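hi support,

uploading two proteins for the ticket. first:
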Amino acid sequence: MRLPPLNAVRAFEAVCRHGSILRAAGELNVVRGAVRQQIATLEGHFGRKLFARDGRRLVPTAEASAFAEASGAAFDILQRAACELEGVVPSCIRLGVPSAFAVWWLMPRVADMQTSLGDIVVDIVPMTVVEPLQMHPELDAVIMGGEYRPSAGISAVRFMEDEFGPVATPALAATLSDDPAAMGRLTMLASRSVPKLWDEWFVESGTPPVAFSRRQEFEDLLLALGAARSGLGIALAPRASIEDDLLRGQLVAPYGFISRPSGYSLCCRTPDAKRPGFAALHGWLRRCGKAS
């Protein structure tokens, strides 16, 4: 089969990744009309529409989404192969990390990490909203917990168990009974960065959904956990993010924690997985994860 024009594929992949012709044009440093023309060229090549309109938004079809994901992986492979051919060795690993995980688990260990990795520099980029690596070409790897879903061209290596459960101050927890329905008297603290976390806990723990008297949302999990520490209500937390609070008695888990099947994974592009720097980073994460 004749391959489609690569410039058209590049523009199409950028539109799907950004969800916007304007943002794609900004990334490619062209005008919006040029991106639209490339999309039209690609649709002409395949003889089908690649997007449907939802108001002002362009929504890729299911087949187009799959093609965009494969295209992104292919471009990543080409870019890294070109760097190798030119003898360009990345000077550091830009690592995207969920904000709460970065603050409460990774940063207390960062000196040990740097000692262990030697000359390998890891640039830690906190992520308020945890998104797959293919959404972030500026990053080399990301750490993901229950959010991880397999993707073409991405290798994920698990390094630590992922447990989560409701947490509150000891004073608030003392007002609860053994029945999780008692949480309904408290304010449910939620994070817009992980909007389905409570729903997932109800399903995975086998607990009937609770009708809370009040719900308060925060922009990210760090703020929701800070509100829980202040006694505002009850939050759902990954254990790795509040281990110190549990040890100091600032927070307690009245209904314990349950394990998540996916655990925490280091996700990188498949060509990078066997590179010495990524292998060393994964080895360090595994050692610390087992000790946690």
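and the second one:
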Amino acid sequence: MTDYTQIKQQLLERKSELEKRINDHFKEEQSRTLSFSTGELSQYDNHPADTATDLYEREKDFALLEQVEREHEEIEHALAKFENGTFGICEVTGQVIPYERLEANPAARAVVGAVDNRITDDRPPEEDVLEGFEKFNFDHDDHETQFDAEDAYQSVAEFNENSMTFEDSSLDENGELIGYVEEIEGFLSTGIEGYTGDEDVTFERNVHYDQYLNGK
């Protein structure tokens, strides 16, 4: 019969170490408010980025606490198997777990071959929208009817209860716009100072201006 005395001692020492970390650091941190942890009496005069940094560090501590508590549970599970005489037995196959594996991971529940180490090919759905603005720009395809960037603005602008900056509405219901939101934006321009009077507005003789004149 294999002697697991050294493995059990290793588990007990690690359990004691984890309990000390939980009681001396994490539990005290959980009972504190964010203001107490940062030493600030009020968050009112703090820059949002500073508050976000403090919040990030606090959330990181909670994530570490969760990891420590999970390891503590695994060790308690392994110690309980000493009591019922099943320590060192694979929970999946019933085979004896190699002693070398238990030395490396005393809380191991199964032999290496019984552990599911498959890597999934599934990607998070958030990656579908991280390919840049151009992915949703279909202005140069007259046959494309998908919902694109200008459509997104137009949909949101429908709920605008305030008057527009210009006299006409920014919504165009007659067709797809190319590279701009309002038709007039395609061929009117001002200087770097912005609008300073009608005499400073310039007509750009470009393809947008021609299309506007031709009624396209």
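thanks. also noticed: Residues 165-173 have pLDDT under 50 and may be disordered.
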